[in-house]
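Q: Got a minute? One more chain.
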Amino acid sequence: MALESAYAIEMLNITKRFPGIIANDNVTIQLKKGEIHALLGENGAGKSTLMSVLFGLYQAEEGTIKKDGKVVTINNPNDANDLGIGMVHQHFKLVQCFTVLDNIILGVETTKHGFLQKDVARKRILELSDKYGLKVDPDAKIEDITVGMQQRTEILKMLYRDNEILIFDEPTAVLTPAEIDELMQIMRNLAKEGKSILFISHKLAEIMSVADRCTVLRRGKYIGTVNIADTNQEELSRMMIGRDVQLVATKEDKTPGDVILHVENMTVPSKLHHNNAVKNVSFDVRSGEIVCIAGIDGNGQTELVYGLSGLENITSGKITLSGKDISHASIRERSLSGMSHIPEDRHKHGLVMDYSLAYNLVLQRYFEPQFSSKGFLKKGEINKYAEKLIDQYDIRSGQGAPTIARSMSGGNQQKAIIAREIDKDPDLLIAVQPTRGLDVGAIEYIHKQLIARRDEGHAVLLVSLELEEVMSISDRILVMYEGEIVGEFDPKKTTPEELGLYMAGAKRKEAGA
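A: Always. Here it is, folded:
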């Protein structure tokens, strides 16, 4: 009798090519039954591609996939589902105007005499939700719930389909610290119940806390697999980047100069309800300092940035940039006045996804004489400029400047936005979640870029949900809670725990106190 395989899934010698790039170069990964197996690598290392091959979104040119020791063929996601393989994508695949329930049963509807049996489905969803501690409201619309709840909906979609092998692609990139802790617990519960989990992440602390083993990829190649119990963050980052990485940013003390951004009693309306999202907020950012707006997601940070950058009109108050009133200026006027903006949502506000990388890099400057003449674009100049930034910021893409933005990895899309915004040499750089979804090497690089802006005497306004980042690179921290600034802190004289109390609304003090 054949011995039962210890592995739920084996991907053996997988090679996957795209134009100009080998995304997976002879990669092997073996997932044991009931384990949480992390897949670690830089942006563009080939992690998502490998998992997309397993889920049937891509077909490999070479290699074999085995499930429970038997060779299987996966031509599309339906084949993957039939084999019990499910995937939560980095950018969720949900229908915004449908309810949670409708999204979960979509494609596997139970019907009787041609009618949907929603009551049966609802009962099963509530049972699953209860069993795995997922707590979602089946009748809520996707567009009305938090990102964390949307992710739980994706997890329930997999459980509802009886998937045994669960793939999580960068599951924590869009979650708050509390939601991340909850997700880690959910993953542990799933593994305890016998599910086998593949978990793509850049975040070393998360991998150390939840995974049993970790496989590392670098530039499409397999580097090695280690037991988490026998390793540490430094060793993992060295395997991933190929060199030692500075995990905590260092900066010298600096005395701030003149006020660059002055915000006085600014109020911004909310799109979701009748209240204002930003209520009568005032603060300054000076040259030579990094001021960070910290807070739990959804406390007005997004609307604050929309008001500052011109994406949303303010209802009252005044914004002054380098002495010029820009309260009601257009987005282009603000840009030309010396403001750069690294947006929170790179797909919605950061890039034109179907444009080339080159065109995305000149989106705010294409009208300058360097890039256009008499209404015609100088394509040669644009490409030359793009290649300079690609080289300088290590933006990895299959074909360089002509690469379509959509085909690049999320981290490299982010690097492109950062290159474009910093190269404009702005007086004020507004950076919203600039390191979201990036690997430790890219985070180290971006932190150095932000600190360099400050050291050159420019002003940086950072909005971040990552407390480690907030503590590490800010000169001053402003905490936002329910649309108001509830405290101002010196990172050298506070703790993450104290900030957490203000972020949760348990404490408050007047700014400047």
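A: Residues 8 and 68 are 5 Å apart (CA to CA).
Q: Perfect, thanks.
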